[in-house]
């Protein structure tokens, strides 16, 4: 039985003039996950999410979202909720005006959900959006996206500019919305603490390429940290262990043999992500791992 995919990319490439934002990206993400999309600034995260929303088109390759071309029609647009990095709202509109606009634009609008969530986070419907704090604007933007009752919620670093307390509240609301709607979600962030808090699936994007992707639990289980001299570690070891990163007498490696190694230690999510980012930056010579890891 084929598992339905929320995102499916094959050799997806996007160029802006001479600059390449994404290069030959292959990605298969099953539905039902909260996906953490991580990587350094300029890695191509926003480009991938804008492609998924249909805001821009690919230069080459293919991308399907929920089984269809992004923004294929009005019905497909209604299945995707998007919160951009600057959590855009209309400064001169009140919160109530935003909810009315949401109802007018979206046939599946859930006014009861929107009204309840606005009350739960303590927002005054009569207040103008231009006077809201950053955290309040983020909560409003997320409520509008979720009240569409989409099958997929996409967040492009929406909490990057929030203080720690507001970010914690935003992440809590994200989890609650995903659970209430039964939706999948993709969260782009360069803050690994956010990903650890809410995501069960990981995509690492660096240097315009997908470095690795898969369920967080499986990725952590298949990687280990071992002691050894980096100068004596080849890119691929004879025991079926792939060296992802090595320095200071330790290496982060991948493979079943690594898991069974007597001197192997578990890795953290931060160690795993930084290892793949370091390899992409050229600080270790190793072959690229397949990014089409899914369950």
UniProtKB/TrEMBL annotation:
Keywords: ATP-binding, Nucleotide-binding, Transport
GO molecular function: ATP binding; ATP hydrolysis activity
All copies of domain ABC transporter, residue ranges: 7-232
InterPro entries in the record: AAA+_ATPase (IPR003593), ABC_transporter-like_ATP-bd (IPR003439), ABC_Transporter_VariousFunc (IPR051782), P-loop_NTPase (IPR027417)
Keyword Nucleotide-binding (UniProt): yes
Short name of one Pfam family: ABC_tran
Superkingdom of the organism of origin: Bacteria
Protein name listed in UniProt: ABC transporter ATP-binding protein
Natural source organism: Micromonospora costi
Lineage: Bacteria, Bacillati, Actinomycetota, Actinomycetes, Micromonosporales
């Amino acid at each position: 039985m084929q598992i339905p995919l929320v995102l499916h990319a094959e050799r997806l490439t996007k160029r802006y003039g001479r600059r390449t934002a994404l290069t030959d990206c292959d990605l298969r993400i099953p539905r039902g996950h909260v996906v953490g999309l991580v990587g350094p600034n300029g890695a191509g995260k926003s480009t991938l999410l804008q492609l998924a929303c249909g805001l821009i088109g690919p230069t080459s390759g293919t991308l399907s979202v929920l089984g269809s071309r992004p923004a294929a029609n009005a019905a497909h647009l209604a299945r995707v909720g998007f919160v951009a990095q600057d959590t855009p709202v209309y400064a001169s509109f009140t919160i109530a005006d935003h909810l009315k606009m949401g109802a007018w634009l979206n046939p599946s609008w859930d006014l009861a959900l929107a009204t309840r969530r606005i009350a739960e986070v303590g927002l005054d419907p009569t207040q103008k959006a231009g006077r809201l704090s950053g955290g309040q604007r983020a909560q409003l933007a997320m409520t509008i996206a979720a009240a569409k009752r989409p099958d997929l919620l996409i967040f492009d670093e929406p909490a990057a500019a929030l203080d720690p307390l507001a970010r914690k509240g935003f992440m809590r609301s994200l989890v609650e919305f995903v659970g209430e709607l039964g939706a999948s979600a993709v969260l782009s962030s360069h803050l690994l603490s956010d990903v650890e808090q809410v995501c069960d699936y990981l995509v690492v994007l660096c240097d315009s390429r997908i470095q690795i992707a898969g369920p967080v639990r499986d990725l952590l289980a298949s990687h280990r940290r071992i002691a050894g001299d980096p100068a004596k570690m080849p890119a691929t070891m004879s025991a079926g262990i792939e060296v992802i990163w090595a320095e200071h007498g330790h290496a982060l490696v991948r493979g079943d043999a690594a898991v069974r190694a007597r001197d192997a230690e578990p890795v953290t999510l931060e160690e795993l992500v930084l290892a793949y980012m370091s390899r992409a930056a050229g600080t270790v010579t190793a072959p690229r791992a397949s990014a089409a890891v899914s369950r």
